[in-house]
Write a structure and sequence with these properties.
The structure holds two protein chains of two kinds. Chain A is mainly alpha-helical. Chain A has five helices and two strands. The chains are: A mainly alpha, B mainly alpha.
């Protein structure tokens, strides 16, 4: 049986997927200070999987996901809500931003806050919704 | 923060159930029962403090800007209800432990019912009207889910929807009433409002606000003419009927009326509305209970009657009437909960609830029979049960009611005659008489099914025998909370030979007479019903909903025709006309464009965009058209980068790419060659619309630079993004912090869109003839 897919495309898609995912995480984290953010990061991560689905098929791409697409969407929404509720538990009004700085070894500092968590939720929700829609359309008979 | 924790822990357990229920296995119901039992003890320990009038108020800010606080209040009334909720809850969970053990969606059931329990506790403990309303709506909603629990039955779905529509409608009316009340009194806190009764009663808004709140209370507590949803609610699994639809949720309306009585009560309007609705409901319920065949329907109608009685008593409003109301509330919860549990136990073991197929079962189920009869004696108001005390005090209250005593006494006796007859009908029909052939061989119901009825009937017996020790401490603080003026009353079993006792004797005698002539009586009444009460409220309500839907459908169709191209056309035409009109009004056509400052590469990009657009319009290949649109998008992204909007540019590039892929995927399923589908005339029309729309966009962009309506908000964001939002990327800070709520809403919209796509693509309707 001949292979209807391009092998070059398949190798590119396989190698690009982790790279794009790492890039998307970088974009997500730095989003608060420099161009980037959860929405853009989510789009990038989703395109990594869509590329993979085009090179192989959507079933293979689904297997590479840690969660089902709808679960990703649900997790994203949950993270968003939790990040907004954290301030309530601390006795502040809903959605008050709270920040802390983690001191990592080698003098690095990690500036974390609930808005970053919120952005991570957006990231997951965007991946979830894009892949849900894309995969479903790819799978039309 | 005891009260907040009590409510919180129930919700917490509710949200845990989907994850833990499978691991707990079939005993999960018994384990859940521990929690309400613990809360019951915890609440009972507050009783001495409450009797000493040390009330508990606790609160946290919720929406401080809107004066909404998450505040809680524990006095005699809320304590009594909270004890009922947790106490009945414990028994119901033990009962469901057996009843629900083989249901496939057990975890979901416990989630719903715990959600309800938390909301109900929140409702009775709330000290803020808005907090109360939120919990009130959650109870309606969880009741909807529980009634429709057997969601594969169309009857269950219809009944669930009906109850949600009725109680939801009432809830909204009530909210409007609350807002009016809050505006008049200047506070939403019940503890403040209780001081302001005179102000509220004297205000111009008194009548509308009372009527609105009454609609809420009456729908929830199934008062005539909103009573019809309650018999339908019997579609719910029996533990739900025992818990929500007899002991707790339907009493929420009574709670509200009692709670607001010191604030709103005592006026003619209040007395008249409550008296009329209560008396009607009491009679209608008792009358229709007599002619039912389904055990649960019989109980549902007697519940309606009892709720009517409670509303009537609040309406009379004297100290004695309030005491009668509180006692009867306890009496009714005890006996009705027990009877529902027995009806369910019989249904479970024998396989039917139809009274015509049941009979002569006491030799095989003696425990159930004894528990039933103890309960029924209390329901019929026989001594020495709490029910007797309840009935005596009720008669007493009615006989002493100002002005209308005679009518009330007659009404109460009439309703009670039917109640006595129904009580005997229920007990005799099931346990004595001829043996019938039910679907399963009768045997004693399992022990967990009997714990509830036995505990409740024995409680009712002891509360009747020892009124001073057991009943007084529960009832008096509650009466005290409702009736602002202090009352000195005490409860006793034997009142002596007087008018009230005479009324009791008359009731029981006539009730028994009716019971002995039940066969001809039921036959005659059924015939009478068929002739004169042909209108079923349920059908009437269904018709109302239907005609409303077809009315809205009719005029929605004019604008919502379903053709995407016409929607777009309409949007384009309307917006261009409006903007052109405005541009014409403002005049000033000088668009001071400085052509010399435009760099050459921008001109190049513009030419690229124009060429691609023309190409996309005139090409006859779908793929080429899509790719050309993509080119336009990338070119735009380049312009964004030139002007420093890097974020927007990245987003645009990614979106263009994904949209391109998406379009290719869709186009893949269409023929690759585009024949000329449209006629030349429509092409010319579309061309004109496109030019007008594009023209206004161009004009608008050129003008936008000179229009300054108010100082732009961007200065604020520029200044505060780093200090308040800890971020240098202003766009991102706006998205996740300053305007985070919007983003949250958008995320929800995304989810809804995804669900829409799934339902469109994955859940295809089965065509006729297909498997």
């Amino acid at each position: 049986m001949s292979n209807p897919y391009s092998n070059i495309f398949r190798i590119v898609a396989t190698k690009l997927r982790p790279l794009l995912l790492i890039l998307s995480l970088v974009v997500l984290y730095r989003g608060h200070q420099q161009p980037g953010g959860g929405f853009i990061g989510g789009l990038m991560a989703a395109s990594a999987y869509i590329l993979y689905a085009l090179a192989f098929n959507s079933a293979e791409a689904r297997k590479k996901l840690p969660l089902s697409t709808s679960a990703l969407l649900g997790t994203g929404l949950t993270v968003i809500v939790v990040s907004a509720l954290l301030s309530v538990m601390a006795g502040e009004p809903f959605m008050t931003g709270m920040w802390t700085t983690l001191h990592l070894p080698f003098g690095q500092e990690l500036h974390l806050g609930t808005p970053v968590l919120f952005d991570a939720g957006v990231y997951l929700a965007v991946i979830g919704v894009l892949l849900t829609i894309m995969f479903d359309i790819i799978e039309i008979e | 923060m005891l009260l907040i924790r009590i409510v919180g822990v129930v919700f917490f357990l509710a949200f845990l159930t989907p994850f833990i229920d499978k691991r707990l296995g079939q005993i999960s119901g018994y384990l859940y029962a521990l929690m309400p039992a613990l809360l019951f003890v915890l609440l009972l320990k507050q009783l001495p403090d409450i009797i000493d009038r040390h009330f508990i108020i606790q609160s946290v800010d919720w929406f401080p800007l809107l004066n909404v606080r998450l505040s809680f209040y524990l006095d005699g009334l809320s304590l009594l209800f909270a004890l009922l909720i947790t106490g009945m809850g414990t028994l119901v969970f033990i009962y469901s432990g057996y009843y629900m053990q083989h249901y496939p969606m057990r975890g979901r059931f416990y989630f719903y019912i715990l959600l309800f329990m938390g909301a109900m506790l929140g409702l009775v403990l709330a000290n803020n009207l808005i907090t109360l309303f939120v919990f009130w709506e959650i109870t309606s909603f969880s009741s909807f889910l529980l009634i429709g629990f057997n969601h594969e039955r169309p009857e269950a779905r219809a009944a669930a929807l009906q109850s949600l529509l009725v109680t939801g409608f009432g809830g909204l009316a009530m909210l409007a009433g609350f807002v009016l009340l809050g505006n008049v009194a200047g506070s939403y806190e019940l503890t403040d409002l209780l001081q302001d009764g005179a102000v509220v009663k004297g205000s111009k808004m008194y009548m509308p606000l009372v009527l609105l709140i009454l609609v809420g209370a009456f729908t929830k507590s199934a008062q005539f003419p909103f009573h019809f949803w309650l018999p339908g609610a019997m579609e719910a699994p029996t533990p739900v009927s025992a818990y929500l639809h007899s002991a707790t949720m339907v009493k929420a309306g009574i709670y509200l009326l009692a709670r607001l009585h010191p604030i709103l009560g005592g006026t003619d309007l209040w007395q008249f509305s409550l008296g009329l609705a209560g008396a009607m409901t009491m009679l209608v319920g008792a009358y229709f209970a007599f002619t039912q065949f389904d055990l649960k329907k019989i109980l549902a109608y007697t519940t309606i009657s009892a709720l009517g009685m409670l509303v009537l008593l609040v309406g009379i409003g004297t100290g004695l009437a309030i005491m009668a109301m509180v006692i009867f509330l306890i009496v009714h919860s005890l006996y009705k909960g027990a009877l529902f549990m027995i009806a369910g136990a019989i249904d479970k073991t024998v396989g039917t609830r139809d009274i015509r197929r049941l009979g002569g079962m006491w030799p095989v189920m003696p425990v159930a029979a004894v528990a039933t009869f103890l309960t029924l004696f209390s329901m019929a108001g026989l001594p020495p049960f709490l029910g007797f005390i309840g009935k005596e005090v009720i008669y007493d209250a009615k006989v002493q009611a100002p002005e209308i005593a005679v009518y009330l006494a007659i009404l109460a006796v009439a309703a009670n005659i039917f109640m006595v007859a129904v009580a005997f009908l229920f007990g005799y029909g099931v346990f004595f008489g001829k043996k019938k052939d039910p679907p399963k061989i009768p045997r004693e119901p399992a022990i967990p099914l009997l714990i509830g009825p036995v505990v409740l009937s024995v409680t009712s017996l002891f509360m009747g025998i020892y009124p001073a020790i057991l009943t007084q401490p529960l009832v008096m603080p509650a009466v005290d909370a409702v009736n602002a003026s202090p009352v000195k009353l005490h409860i006793q079993l034997w009142h002596g030979l007087n008018l009230v006792f005479l009324l009791s004797v008359i009731t029981v005698t006539l009730g028994l007479t009716l019971f002995f002539f039940r066969k001809p009586a039921i036959k005659a009444l059924r015939k009478f019903n068929q002739r004169y009460f042909k209108i079923e409220f349920t059908d009437l309500f269904g018709k109302l909903v239907e005609s409303f839907l077809s009315f809205t459908k009719g005029h929605t169709k004019v604008v919502q025709h379903g053709y995407h191209r016409f929607y777009l056309m309409l949007i384009f035409i309307v917006s261009s006309l409006l903007v052109w009109y405005q541009l014409y009004n403002t005049r000033g056509w000088g668009f001071q464009a400085n052509w010399e400052e435009i760099p050459f590469y921008l001109i190049g990009i513009s030419l690229l965009i124009i060429t691609s657009a023309l190409g996309a319009v005139f090409t006859r290949s779908r793929l080429v058209a899509i790719i050309l649109l993509g080119v336009i998008g990338y070119a735009m992204a380049f312009i964004f980068i030139l002007y420093g909007a890097v974020d927007v540019a990245i987003t645009l590039i990614l979106v263009e790419t994904l949209v391109l892929v998406l379009f290719v995927m869709v186009v893949y399923h269409l023929p690759s060659y585009m024949p000329r589908y449209s006629r030349p005339t429509s092409r010319i029309r579309d061309g004109i619309i496109a030019l007008v729309f594009g023209g206004f966009m161009t004009a608008l962009v050129l003008k936008a630079e000179f229009i300054k309506i108010s100082p732009p908000i961007s200065d604020y964001f520029l200044k505060e993004a780093f200090t308040k939002g800890h971020g240098r990327n202003i766009v991102n800070v706006i998205l996740v912090d300053f305007r985070g709520l919007d983003t949250m809403g958008e995320a929800v919209v995304l989810m809804i869109a995804a669900i829409g796509v799934i339902s469109l693509l994955k859940l295809k309707p089965k065509k006729k003839g297909e498997e």
